[in-house]
Specification:
The protein is an alpha/beta fold and about 325 residues long. It has twelve helices and 14 strands.
Length: about 325
């Protein structure tokens, strides 16, 4: 049973964080159709959340009965706060953070997969070193310092798993938290020995040229195919708006399928929301989007989180998958 006072405290904190984070960030509002469900969707302006933008601009949401407004927020933690606080109806966030929130009694439910990790086309969890570095293997990172996007998030835990699975000892490796835009400079200056990069955040990282070198796909150590992020809401919102939740899922499914075969067109749309040119967007390996939410896509996140003590105990993934999910 959850602790009511703790839950109330966390929700109040979420509301405050959402207000502070979202202040001054305008909603992006496509044209509305009458009698459609009006949804505020919080997401990171990036290819990882791009399928929601494509659903709006291509009319997939309108077709399914949704009018979407977008609240651009820089990270999953602030998005979770916005959804819990009620300033957004649906949000994008990483699975591990949401699993942790659920374990603390927060009423979060999954609706649809977002970006997938695909072994054939990885876009995140790419362990990198300076091109001049003598490091070539996971074992070479023993005793070294690596940069991750957050301590105990999937970037950090995947790196530990990859090191341990490939002959190294993650207990000897120091992880420090750095924003993705700062990682390249930290590697080049020698401040860190390795960094777990995400190429969707910076097109130049996909072609590191004379400065960086990739040595491994750390997400492969978690699973060769899983969903590190999802679209989610609260149990209460879905219970009050079941038709809107299902309409969101229907629009997103059509968008995910379209995006996988229309990279040039999707880059033009994404550019409007990110202010990155279509040419720059298409320099990177484009994101793979999920089309159906299953427990198998989520389970690897829980398994690795329990293994490294980030989650105290496992619980059924089905507890977090909404009846409106698809």
């Amino acid at each position: 049973m959850s602790n009511p006072s703790r839950r109330a405290f966390l929700v109040r904190a979420a509301v405050a964080t959402a207000a502070a984070t979202a202040s001054g960030v305008p909603l992006v509002r496509p044209a509305f159709a009458q009698d459609a469900a009006v949804l505020t969707i919080a997401c990171i302006p990036s290819d990882i959340a791009g399928s929601a933008y494509y659903a709006a601009d291509n009319g997939f949401f309108k077709k399914s009965g949704v009018n979407a407004s977008f609240l651009g927020i820089a990270n999953g933690a602030a998005i979770t706060a916005a959804v819990l606080g009620g300033s957004a109806d649906i949000g994008y966030s990483n699975v591990l953070s949401l699993l942790l929130a659920h374990s603390r009694g927060l009423p979060i439910t999954f609706l649809f997969p977002a970006n997938l990790h695909a072994h054939e086309a990885p876009t995140a969890g790419l362990m990198s070193v300076s091109k001049s570095s003598p490091i070539t293997t996971a074992r070479d990172l023993n005793g070294k310092t690596i940069a991750v996007t957050g301590i105990n998030n999937i970037s950090d835990i995947a790196a530990r798993q990859w090191i341990d699975k490939n002959g190294g000892d993650s207990k000897t490796v120091k992880s420090i938290e750095l924003p993705l835009p700062e990682m390249k400079a930290a590697l080049e200056s020698g401040r860190v020995d390795g960094a777990n990069l995400d190429t969707t955040s910076d097109p130049t990282l996909n072609k590191p040229g004379d400065t960086l070198r990739f040595i491994g796909s750390t997400f492969d150590a978690v699973s060769q195919h899983f969903a590190p992020s999802v679209w989610f809401s609260t149990n209460e919102w879905v219970a009050k708006h079941p038709a809107a939740a299902k309409a969101f899922v229907a629009g997103m499914r059509e968008s995910a399928a379209w995006a996988m075969t229309h990279h040039r067109e999707s880059a033009d749309i994404l550019s409007k929301y990110t202010h990155v040119t279509p040419a720059q967007i298409n320099q990177v390996t484009r994101v793979t989007y999920g089309e159906h939410l299953t427990a198998d896509l989520i389970q690897p996140n829980m398994d690795v989180a329990v293994k490294y003590g980030v989650l105290k105990a496992a619980f059924p993934i089905s507890d977090m998958i909404s009846s409106a999910a698809g």
